[in-house]
Design goal:
The structure is a single chain. By secondary structure, this protein is mainly α. It has helices at residues 6-45, 69-84, 86-109, 117-124, 143-148, 163-181, 184-193, 195-205, 217-234, 266-272, 277-283, 312-320, 323-330, and strands at residues 58-59, 62-63, 254-259, 264-265, 291-292, 300-305. It has two domains: 58-248 and 322-330, Lysozyme (Orthogonal Bundle); 254-305. Helices cover 54% and strands 6% of the residues. Helix 4 packs across helix 9, helix 7 (184-193) crosses helix 8 and helix 7 (184-193) crosses helix 9.
């Protein structure tokens, strides 16, 4: 049907324009309201709080002068960094459940304070990493230092990646540093800076207190980083970290087999043990090649998984009802009390 009346046609055009205007205005108004609601919700729910600086804190039984402004502000910096670097701190906590039992037992055997577990944590995040300077493994040991303390390091074997042996080497270093500098705090600083450099700073600045020294940026932060992760780890809920036991990485269910053969093909060895080569390497990161020549005729202890030892639910079973192990390992508060 054709519209011949100009008046009707004009009215229809006006009504169409009005409809389009109202539709666009309504959509814009709706979008504006949604944005306002979004911003209000953001302001209501997103809040950042300052990390709590403890009134008192010690390291390895040595009191930290946290009442001094410079000490307090240095600790506050590291507490803030680690409280709000959520992914990194959370992953360190998860790995700690697996590695701290090994580290703690060796520290205790060597009469090294338990707080040095946190030194390993800040050195590597409890990962077998390599620094730009060549420091390697969870304890970040340099090649020369590792050899000085009895670690085998070559193209096929690098015991800086062996948690137990590297921890033993770290203990020897820390004990010598403590004997030389008199305090565990200075021993920790020397672990980062080196004993020779630490001696020079003491002579130059005529002080033996870490907290009185003017140091390079890395070492100046070093002990405070240890103190920060210790504080958060021992009171996680106060810093916003909530975990269930099943969130952690459990100790692995393994046994050791002794090998003293020469020219071992580790891929074939893994096949003989009916495990993937990948698992052999993950359980024994100190094996740095797919071959083990063993020209010296040494005996090596290689870890292998027990039956069902790769199954998460199986390896968690021994820890589900052992509350004492859980508390001693993490000291985490119960969330739902």
């Amino acid at each position: 049907m054709k519209l011949k009346n100009p008046l009707i046609l004009t009215l229809l055009l006006i009504l169409s324009g009005l409809f389009v205007y109202l539709f666009i205005f309504s959509a814009e108004e709706k979008e504006k309201l949604t944005e306002d609601d979004y911003r209000k919700a953001f302001q209501h729910h997103y809040k950042i709080f300052a990390a709590k600086v403890p009134a008192q804190i010690s390291f390895a039984g040595e009191e930290v002068p946290v009442d001094r402004f410079d000490v307090r502000e240095s600790l506050d910096r590291e507490l803030t960094v680690n409280s709000y670097w959520h992914s990194n701190t959370q992953l360190m906590f998860k790995r700690a459940f697996r590695y701290f039992p090994v580290i703690d037992s060796i520290l205790e055997k060597n009469n090294i304070p338990k707080d040095f577990r946190y030194l390993a944590m800040i050195e590597s995040g409890l990962q077998n990493v390599v620094s730009p300077a060549g420091a390697t493994g969870i304890w970040q040991i340099m090649k020369g230092t590792g050899r000085d303390y009895g670690l085998e390091i070559n193209n096929q074997v690098d015991e800086r990646y062996h948690l137990a042996k590297a921890t033993e080497a770290a203990c020897k270093y820390l004990r010598k540093a403590k004997d030389k500098f008199g305090t565990w705090t200075m021993a920790a600083a020397a672990y980062n800076m080196g004993r020779a450099a630490t001696s020079r700073r003491i002579m130059e600045q005529k002080t033996e207190s870490y907290y009185d020294m003017y140091l390079n940026r890395e070492t100046a932060r070093y002990v405070y980083r240890i103190l920060a992760v210790k504080t958060i780890y021992e009171s996680p809920t106060e810093y916003g970290f909530y975990f269930r036991k099943e969130d952690f990485y459990p100790p692995l269910n393994t046994y050791e087999t002794r090998v003293d053969s020469s020219n071992i093909d580790l891929v074939e060895f893994a096949q003989q043990q009916e495990i993937p080569y990948k698992i052999l390497k993950l359980l024994n990161p100190w094996l740095r090649s797919d071959k083990l020549s063993n020209s010296a005729g040494k005996t090596y202890a290689i870890k292998l998984p027990k039956e069902n030892g790769l199954n998460y639910s199986t390896i968690m079973t021994p820890y589900k009802d052992d509350q004492q192990v859980f508390n001693d390992t993490l000291l985490i508060k119960q969330i739902y009390q």
